[in-house]
Structure prediction request, 588 residues.
Amino acid sequence: MRWLLGIAAFAAAWLLPYALGGYSMHVVDVAIIFAVLAIGLGLTMGVAGQINLAQVAFFGVGAYAVAILTTGAGLGFWTASVLALVAAVVAGLLAGIPALRMQSHYLGIVTLGLALAFINWVTNAHVAGRAEGISDIPVPPMFGIDLSSAYLFYYVELIVFVVFLALALFVTHSPLGRRLRAMRDDDLAAGALGAEIPLLRMTAFVLSGLYGGVAGVLYAGLIRFVAPETFSIGNMFLLLAMVIIGGRSSIVGCVVGALALAFVREALLDVSAFAQLGYGVIVVLVVVFFPKGLAGLLSRRKAGGRARLGPFQEYGTAAADEGTVLEVEGVTKRFRGLVALEDITLSVPAGQIRGIVGPNGSGKTTLFNVVSGFYSPTRGRVRLHGRDVTNLAPYRLSLRGVARTFQNLRLFEDLSVRENVLLGLDRTRTAWIWRYLATPWAVARYSRGLNRSAEEIIARFGLQEVADAVPRALPYGIQRRVEIARAMAMSPSLLLLDEPAAGLNGEEVRQLAEIVRSIRGSGVTVVVIEHNMGLVMSLCDHVTVLSSGRVIADGPPDEVAVDPDVVAAYLGDSMAAPTESEVEHAEG
Ligand SMILES: Nc1ncnc2c1ncn2[C@@H]1O[C@H](COP(=O)(O)OP(=O)(O)OP(=O)(O)O)[C@@H](O)[C@H]1O
Prediction:
């Protein structure tokens, strides 16, 4: 259906010039340029969640580079265009550097500053023609076709537009796009799943620069004159309005928004001051009432299904590696004055289920955060399979076999259960991105392979009925299982579970124990933080007890449970120490 719609739209677009007068054709040509810009902005802001108010500057870099290189340096139009694209991509890279350090409104302010700096530069620089701009850009040559005609130039634009729309849709629906969306939803969780956040942010800005550059080249070829006002903040705002109204996370929505607003802008040209006000009002209304824009109105909500879990299918047994998987040596973590961990030393042999218990605030989650790379320890070392991994970023640790779940569940709320699992499965590096241009068919084949593996994991964890639902539509117990499935999709050698039984009912806790045992049976070492003492006593081979950031006991569950220091540490804490019957149950 979508293909048919696409082909029909392309056929209609191909025939459009036959129905339009010269001026209308020109208006359509300009609208397409805005649509290309909006796709670029949709990719950075909508898909990747990076606030980017410099898109209009990338557009300007593309257009000005063509203007300067053709009129000043005497290059041919297409040679200048290739260099202009390179310049716009480099501008995107530079604008992306602040995104490595800051996010949200701070990033908005910085990118806005870059856009203003660009306008300021072109308005004052001699080489850019100052306020008068640069005219006499040559007509792009094309096998004798006269591209000074708005009608013929339209076909060049249409083909470029379709190619870059297809590229944007391909990227959005590929493993890379999924990672970008995951980063937008929760960059910490995406990092723990192997997403190289800094590179991904740069990728988003590079894409933005590329689309800005393409729009700039088209603009220079169409208008053959550049001046600062085209790249003004007013037009940046218009572009933003296009993307917000269309639906920022939908590429097609961005295109529809851009085309619609470009025509409205043209209609309101005589009352442009009021038009700006009008756009502002419309944007506010859309943000308040339809935060997902026009595209959100049309998209069908993914149902939560009947939200029933199927049975868990056990993993086959496999021998764990030999030796010690995790060693924590003398780790101290301070947060300003507060010592969250003090001189923690522990080691977890391969194939063990290790419990970490302790009263609230004793440092358990902080220990996980150090081991999984979220925090750097103030002192001490962490070793994985004997190799020092202290201070490695979460994505590096994830690629070395550490997977984790979170106390407060960090599922990607705008991605389906299947996509959450797919993210865990995708073990590629972001540097792989060149393949999206060079060998897209290989990317498509890889993506199909991931889909097949995802179905296996979904079936193993009994998630078939909820695979298309978004996590927030699901009961808590199912979300917890999805998080474990996603972590196991990473084929880890060390699985860190942070309070996996929190919020589960008795039957769900029993199923959880069965799942964790099966995971261990498949050769994965498990470390579990848990307050449910019954579960700890029955599940864990070995327990480490923390209190006020220190290890106060370490040993088999039954010994630890009766340790006087442990009993003392739990006195006064709301959580009860294990009861005698729990100890007996564990011993039995
Ligand atoms: N990012 C942070 N900044 C400042 N203090 C922190 C930070 N993270 C943890 N802490 C503090 O470190 C101490 C240990 O916290 P942590 O969350 O590790 O305890 P916990 O044993 O996991 O507790 P709970 O059982 O309640 O989850 C607490 O006093 C907490 O307030």
User: Anything to note?
Assistant: DSSP finds 24 helices and ten strands in the chain. Strands lie at 324-335, 338-349, 353-357, 379-384, 387-388, 402-404, 494-498, 525-529, 542-547, 550-555. The chain has two domains: 32-298, 324-587.
